[in-house]
Amino acid sequence: MRKRVYDTAVIGAGASGIMAAVTAARLGADVVLLEHMKQPAKKLLATGNGKCNYTNADLGIGHYYCEEPEFVRTVLEQFSYADTVRFFEELGIRPVLKNGTCVYPESEQAVSVKNALLAEAKRLDISLLLSVGIRRIHKLCHQEIGGKMEREIFCIETKKDVLFSRTCILATGGKAAKKTGSDGSGYVYARQLGHTVRQPHPALVALFADFQAWKLPAGVRIGCAAALYVDGKRAACETGELQIAEYGISGIVVFQFSRIAARALSENRQVTVCLDFKPDLSEAALTEYLLERFSSVYHKDKRIDEGMNGFLPEKMIPVIRSRAGIKEQMRCGQCSRRQAEQLTAVLKAYQVNITGTKGFDNAQATAGGVCVQEINAGRMESKKVPGLYFAGELVDVDAKCGGYHLQWAWSSGFAAGRAAAELVGIFQAHSGKRRKGSVQKTDDSDSANQSTDRTRKKGTGV
Q1: What is the rounded distance in angstroms from the CA atom of residue 377 to the CA atom of residue 297?
Q2: DSSP letters spanning 48-63
Q3: Per-residue pLDDT tens over the stretch 379-417
Q4: What is the C-alpha separation between 138 and 146, in angstroms, rounded?
Q5: pTM higher than 0.85 for the full model?
Q6: What span, in angstroms and rounded, lies between the C-alpha atoms of 457 and 114?
Q7: DSSP for residue 331
Q8: Pairing of the two strands 148-158 and 162-170
């Protein structure tokens, strides 16, 4: 039986992989989508606590972490926030704004987004192969496959078969949340093909802390400002909700800078977090407020713990008071200015020593990956291996919470899928073969809004 040669093989059926496959198929490419899990897009179901925050209206590159910020900008410009909203609206996903700029599906269910993507992949006749264990990916030159001489072709060796494709897109994800499929295998394939991988670290992850004698009470959620220090130097500061656990600290305010903490800890550097539980008040204003509060007729005869009722979560009050060196029996009316200043100092600068992270299994994203210096940002194509493309978390780009990781998946997947289909079009033109759905060659700087002939069966523009 003649061996089939696909135009494009996409490795990884997550968010970026499906986007890449759909984009290439809409441009006429014959696509196979390979996934080593039993079901596709499993990680997508966990995004946004199952509600899928799939993009953000505030899409500045300041929300992303990358050694070359212009690399991120170039990719995002090819498939913008507006392109993402329009793309999913066409698939039946109506957008709903929450928290000002975060975009969710109207159903508030991640499965809606997953089903819409898979339905489009099915409509485009994309071959979806599940439970595929890949052993090796390499490139062959001037190889006869199925009675036809192929100038350049990728050979994908699986546990049960060998597949061939003219282009290959790696979209395997990183190492975060292994149970959803991100096991780090993409780094192996990238290295096999000659690429450099920057050491991966967990990102958007909780941190272990050594509270020593001043452990904060587990189960408390409180808004605060958190400043991260590495070897005594301030490295980041975020404001948001803090979650206190038995092991340490979590919540969005911690997730936002956890990548920095993880990398510093791996280098055996000292990492601390300074918590400000009253970021809206200056030290002077907070001290005056406490003195006024404690001296009021309503509180002066109460004990200090009772006098702070409603000012802090109940479980935190004795901890803060004790750390400030104030005895439990003291009445509010007895509180001196010096003691009020001591309370202020604790509330404005609660020091926590960080000892580790909860690791990749509990992380939402990966920091590190394939070096961006080895990738053409306009096409997401390897500078080392023509016809090889990258998309999604596998690349050394990560971001803050808020739909930014998924937007990176859509944008990078689109860029890779479009470029792969264009290259296949050049191959076909050289061979004189007529393709289904011609592809108009576009410049690397072209935006996603420029017109391209995207006719494949009933395919519409991405």
Answers
A1: 66
A2: GGGT---EES---GGG
A3: 999 999 999 999 999 999 999 999 999 999 999 999 999
A4: 18
A5: yes
A6: 22
A7: B
A8: antiparallel
